[in-house]
Specification:
The complex is a heterodimer of chains A (577) and B (87). Chain A is mainly beta. Chain A contains seven helices and 32 strands. A six-stranded mixed beta sheet of chain A has the order 12-11-14-19-16-17, with no helix packed on it. In chain A, strands 23-22-25-30-27-28 form a six-stranded mixed beta sheet. Chain A starts with 13 loop residues before the first strand and ends in a 17-residue tail after the last strand. Chain B is α+β, with helices and mostly antiparallel strands and 87 residues long. Chain B is 14% helix and 14% strand. Chain B has a two-stranded antiparallel sheet. In chain B, 14% of the residues are buried. The chains are: A mainly beta (577), B alpha+beta (87). At the A-B interface, strand 17 of A face loops of B.
Chain lengths: 577, 87
């Protein structure tokens, strides 16, 4: 940590009259962050980027629950900046979103954030201005709980992922707007076409290709932006970030995905991971072999290596175009094998999410040829049999023959359903149950439908068909409990992030539904989350994929009513920069 | 030593015997086939709901090094275990 990063502790002891001595601890920390131009070296390439205190990623900010923090952020850039504390519950003026929380921080200015810390766990921070976050402006937050956590660990490491691209964020968006497939290096080729013709016949192959063409997408559209180098704690796969341990120690790994666009399937061959927290909140522990780390999500896991050897932390990007790699080892310099990436998934017609009614009418019997090991063998032409009238013929038992455990957070027949590389347990949202629910369970007062919409070829992303600059804010009433219905009508996965309030993800566990800050919605699925509207102010609500957010999948949320002290000084409506 | 018991408790969890804050004791007699039940009646263990307490009395004829643990799925792995040495 840099020297400019300071912390002061003020401990006040109050002596009461008489024989009683009542110590009161008031903990207040002051932290300094500078926003700087930095060089980022991924091992594959070096680029100009943005960091904090002279480095990208920025420091780990370590707070304590109950502390009142003061954070001085000084902008050393020649453009405006901002810092958003992702997942933190705080007054809206401290939330760090330009034009919603405050005007932003101008070049040369210092903005002082002050807010109380009333939560604990793993969070992160990043710029909410332009494409500064994909350009490197992110760091992590670790908050020690007031009372001890209901799990034990000897070592504690932040494991922060990102997808560093040689191009600047601005240039990437420009290219995507010009040609949505600009960064899709996995396009089906003429060679694939002839291979499919020999396998499936000419007419089937042609009609399949035409169907995808009509839908303005390709089966390989899993990652809009390829060509990046995944980093863990700022280190590329070759640079190999290493966390040390002594055999039999329990290690707490705080996985954070600070990527602009990339989901990672994370595993540590040879170790089981016990998931103890999701998005900062403790969950009932669940032991898995692999998990999918969505953009902006965090998961805390505990691992216990018993042997005196190295283990690889391996994060394959969801589209399998690149992998992140780090190491846990008893001694520096020890390495373990780097596993092969499992086969790249291909989107299926089911992931199109064009029409849910159609999907339910799908005749699964035609899908028997589907084999998880070889999605390419799937014959899309047989899907022409999709027929709304055929719904009665739906037979879930056939789905089992696909060899995948059903996960309701993916649409039936989805090509994206993850499989653990070792055939073991892959974490599902359905496994997440709150350790200690933050809110009493109650019926939502109303439902708000948010259709996630877009036009891939024009690279426009929107909510309910309207992009941010044309949309009215979502108005919530203080004290209500709103049920959000996310209907993903696109073929991309969207990590939806509501600022300022928790999103209680409906996993069907009633009062144990976990509170998250980011809800990943897979193509063709409908996902519900509920929010107790317990803070006044105005907040951002958006897809956390940087280029989707910028292209319009964004809303302002205004909370009306509530404590008077938080009167809102509404800046004029304006687009995100 | 605890692995087998963890399997039994996983089964109890999957069948709804164990919930996060309560135990459905009436389901514990369910016949699981192969002579298995979910009664959790081994003399070296106790099954407690929140705020309950119980006693286990041990007699040691010999010196022993043992682990004691909670085998509810995920609990052992997240650290709800300890060692006891009798000399």
């Amino acid at each position: 940590m840099k020297k400019s990063f300071m912390r002061t502790l003020q401990v006040g002891i109050l002596l009461a009259a008489g024989t009683l001595i009542i110590p009161t601890l008031s903990v207040a920390g002051t932290y300094d962050l500078t926003v700087d131009r930095v060089l980022i070296d991924t091992g594959n390439f070096t680029k100009q980027g943005i960091g904090y205190n002279g480095k990208s990623p920025g420091p780990v900010l370590r707070f304590k629950e109950g502390e009142d923090v003061t954070i001085n952020v000084t902008n050393n850039l020649d453009v405006s900046t901002s810092v958003h504390w992702h997942g933190m519950i705080l007054p809206f003026q401290m939330d760090g979103v330009p034009k919603i929380s405050y005007p932003g921080i101008e070049p040369g200015e210092t903005f002082t954030y002050k807010f109380p810390i009333n939560q604990s766990g793993t969070f992160w921070f990043h710029s909410h201005s332009g494409f500064q976050e994909p350009d490197g402006a992110y760091g992590s937050i670790v908050i020690e709980p007031k009372n001890r956590d209901p799990f034990r660990f000897d070592k504690d490491y932040v494991v922060q992922f990102t997808d560093t691209h040689p191009h600047s964020g601005k240039r990437i968006l420009r290219n995507l707007k010009m040609a949505a497939d600009y960064y899709n290096r996995k396009q089906q080729t003429l060679g694939d076409f002839f291979a499919d013709v020999s396998k499936n016949g000419l007419s089937a192959t042609v009609s399949n290709r035409m169907a995808w063409g009509d839908m303005r997408m390709m089966p390989t559209d899993i990652e809009d932006v390829q060509g990046f180098t995944p980093l863990i704690n700022g280190k590329g796969p070759v640079q190999n970030w290493t966390g040390l341990f002594t055999p039999k120690e329990r290690i707490r790994l705080r996985f954070i995905n600070s990527s602009a666009m990339t989901y990672f399937d994370v595993r540590i061959p040879g170790l089981k991971m016990t998931v103890v927290a999701a998005d900062g909140n403790n969950v009932q522990p669940v032991t898995v072999d692999e998990l999918r780390l969505g953009v902006a999500e965090t998961y805390d896991v505990i691992v216990r290596p018993m042997d005196d050897k190295a283990y690889t932390i391996f994060g394959a990007s969801m589209g399998r175009t690149a992998y992140a790699r780090a190491t846990l080892a008893p001694r520096d310099g020890m390495v373990a094998d780097i596993p092969e990436m499992t086969e790249s998934p291909l989107l299926t017609m089911a992931d199109m999410g064009m029409d849910h009614g159609d999907m339910e009418g799908m005749d699964h019997s035609t899908m028997k040829g589907m084999d998880k090991g070889d999605m390419k063998s799937m014959d899309h032409s047989t899907m022409k049999g999709m027929d709304k009238g055929g719904m009665k013929g739906m037979d879930h038992s056939n789905m089992k023959s696909m060899g995948k455990e059903e996960d309701n957070f993916y649409t039936n027949g989805s090509g994206l359903v993850p499989d653990a590389a070792n055939g073991g347990k892959f974490l599902s949202y359905a496994d997440l149950k709150a350790q200690k629910p933050l809110f009493a369970d109650r019926e939502a007062t109303r439902e708000i439908e948010l259709r996630l919409t877009g036009n891939m070829e024009r690279y426009i992303w929107s909510i309910n068909g309207v992009k941010y600059e044309d949309a009215e804010p979502i108005v919530l009433q203080y004290g209500e409990r709103v049920r959000f219905k996310f209907v993903n009508e696109t073929m991309m996965t969207h990590p939806m992030h509501l600022h300022g309030m928790w999103s209680i993800l409906d996993v069907g566990a009633g009062k144990w539904n976990p509170a998250k800050h980011t809800i990943s919605v897979a193509p063709g699925t409908t996902v519900y989350s509920e929010t107790e509207v317990d803070v006044p102010g105005q907040w951002a609500f958006h897809c956390h994929l940087s280029y989707h957010m910028d292209a319009g999948m964004f809303r302002k949320v205004v909370v009306e009513g509530g404590p008077k002290t938080a009167s809102i000084d509404l800046p004029e409506k304006g687009a995100m920069q | 030593m605890h692995a087998e018991h963890q399997e039994e408790m996983m089964m109890m969890m999957e069948h709804g015997v164990l919930e996060a804050d309560k135990i459905n004791r009436d389901m514990m007699k369910m016949d699981m086939g192969n002579g298995k039940t979910m009664e959790h009646n081994d003399p070296n263990s106790a099954l407690l709901e929140p705020k309950e307490s119980a006693e286990i009395i041990w007699k040691f004829a010999d010196a022993a090094k043992l682990e004691f643990a909670c085998n509810v799925p995920g609990h052992y792995a997240s650290g709800m275990m300890g060692e006891v040495h009798f000399e």
